[in-house]
Amino acid sequence: MTASNSAPAGDATDNHAGADSAGTDSAGAASAAKSAAIGVACGLGAYSIWGAFPVFFGLLRDTGPVEILAHRVVWTLVLMLIVGAIAGRLGKLRRLDRRTWLLVCAASTAIAVNWGTYIFAVVSNRVVEAALGYFINPLVSVLFGVVLFRERLTKPQIAALVLAVAAVVVITIGYGHLPYIALVLALSFALYGLVKKVVRLDADTSLTAEGLVASPLAIGYLVFLAMTGAGTFFSEGPGHAALLMATGPVTALPLLLFAVAAQRVPLSTMGMLQYLTPALQMVWGVLVLQEDMPASRWVGFGLIWIALAIFTADALARARRRKAVGTTA
């Protein structure tokens, strides 16, 4: 009687343990799925906002690109200082060493060139060329990895780079000159990403530090414009002033969304999402602004898209192989 009673008791205990384990696994899977969903939503939000930049900066078309850039630097810094103070993270800035500040200066210079060039492209109706720069950017980053870190290229990566070079040649022949806006945007953003990879600061601390470095020049320029009467902040009405101030949150919000997404979403997924930005920009340039799209430009873009398809397929395949090796190990 004792033996027969002990067996069901043991079975019940095992069943409860199994149920608890299954419940824990189910809860963990649900939590992971929710985290991934949030990450994808944040990633889509970030890249969609960046894709809508031609719409926003187009509203400031009557303001000089340098003035817009200066306001963007200042108001982004103001917002990030407020966020940092609320989050209690400003103390991190005091602990940065000299090497880190030098890297921050390099990052600040690269992103200022990128921002300024992009604003110039928008206000001068060259949005499609700007989109080309962000299509090229991932391939430029790979090239930097080869040149600076001696990374070895796969055959698909080599093919993608060859196609990208061919695309630039085709577009150059069509233009009669290099697509310098696209190249400056791609190079400056790739350099920015390179420095950010080395400096290893969280997104909000890095953006705040970069703003601190750039703000003296930006503030000085805005003061000069105000003293000479050449600025538009006070002369074009409160609506225009509000738009200039909005350059801060418009800049910071997608960066913060991107930071959340990067923590929750695999790099392969982020790599796919990044093409949303130039695609939206190109649609705006072609369909809304009706920018000129001669045959040579369509051919060049076609070569870039083929290159990106090869590059992305190779990246996804290598990610799957690494995951399979990790699972086996």
Note down, in words, how this protein is organized.
By secondary structure, this protein is mainly alpha-helical. The chain has one domain (37-322). Helix content is 85%, strand content 0%. It has 13 helices and no strands. The protein has helices at 2-51, 53-58, 65-87, 91-94, 98-123, 127-149, 155-175, 180-199, 203-228, 238-264, 267-273, 276-288, 295-328. It starts with a helix and ends with a helix. 36% of the residues are buried. Mean pLDDT is 86; it is low at 1-8.
> How many domain units?
1
Helix content: over 70%
- How is the main sheet built? none
How far is the N terminus from the C terminus? 48 Å
Fraction of residues in β-strands:
under 5%
Q: Tell me the structural class.
A: mainly alpha
Gyration radius, in Å: 25 Å
Order of helices and strands: HHHHHHHHHHHHH
Report the total helices. Answer: 13
- Global outline: globular
Overview in brief:
By secondary structure, the protein is an all-alpha fold.
Spell out the key features of this protein.
single chain; about 325 residues; mainly alpha; 13 helices; about 85% helix; globular; disordered N terminus
Topology:
Layout: H1 2-51, H2 53-58, H3 65-87, H4 91-94, H5 98-123, H6 127-149, H7 155-175, H8 180-199, H9 203-228, H10 238-264, H11 267-273, H12 276-288, H13 295-328
Helix pairs in contact: 1-10, 1-12, 3-5, 3-9, 3-10, 5-8, 5-9, 6-7, 6-8, 6-12, 6-13, 7-13
